[in-house]
Design goal:
By secondary structure, this protein is α+β, with helices and mostly antiparallel strands. The chain is built from 5 helices and 9 strands, in the order E-E-H-H-E-E-E-E-H-E-H-E-E-H. Strand 3 and strand 4 form a beta hairpin.
Length: 206
């Protein structure tokens, strides 16, 4: 069974606080939501972007992600963990992490960290899709969970990730991570790390 902690998200339309669950697993119910709710919502967005003549390069860069495959690949492997955010009876965000990677940032290079393989929030919570997001705080809750796992594992809050370009600003400004530049060994995506000091600052703010 997943461990569940209570978190609070912001209902953008009303400004009210919404109670949600942070679960330390991605279970069948989340994959069903991804298949039956996220996918149709995303297809609607993609059709609208195509209709408006928006070039595919500007479409949401995670549109081809398949969470069922991602979770199946690491099923039962202890070095991989999943998180999900559930609120209002639906899965609002998913993340998958890898505990086998090491830090690259100056002063911390070679030390263990939690590597964030994938993070995605439900299409209806993504302002970059041109919609008014329903709930805010989902991505931040998943980052907080990743940092907390890093602390639990004795990695002192260090995390690392490769960012899709549309998310660069989120990791740089919202999360206060260090931008270590484009990584030619990983699809030329930007690599970000959160140092021990940055992790402390991030958790203090949250």
């Amino acid at each position: 069974m997943a461990d569940i902690s209570t978190i609070y998200l912001l209902d953008v339309a009303t400004g009210d606080s919404v109670e949600g669950e942070l679960r330390d697993a991605i279970e069948q119910a989340q994959l069903i939501d991804w298949q039956t709710k996220w996918q149709p919502a995303l297809i609607t967005v993609l059709q609208e972007l195509a209709r408006k003549g928006v070039p595919p390069a500007q479409w949401p860069q995670s549109w081809h992600w398949n969470w069922a495959q991602k979770t199946a690949r690491v099923q039962g492997l202890l070095a991989f963990r999943g998180f999900s955010v559930v609120a209002q009876g639906e899965t609002q965000g998913l993340a998958q992490v890898d505990l086998t990677k090491s830090a690259r940032a100056p002063g911390e290079a070679g030390k263990p960290l939690v590597y964030l393989d994938y993070l995605e929030v439900a299409p209806w919570n993504r302002p970059e899709l041109g919609l008014q997001p329903r709930l805010r705080g989902v991505g931040t809750a998943l980052i907080t969970a990743t940092v907390a796992l890093s602390e639990d594992e004795g990695f002192k809050g260090r995390i690392g990730l490769h960012s899709l370009p549309q998310a660069d600003d989120f990791y740089r400004h919202r999360c206060g991570m260090t931008d270590l530049g484009l990584d030619p060994g990983y699809q030329n995506l930007r690599y970000f790390e959160m140092t021990v000091a940055q992790a402390r600052a991030f958790l203090d703010e949250e």
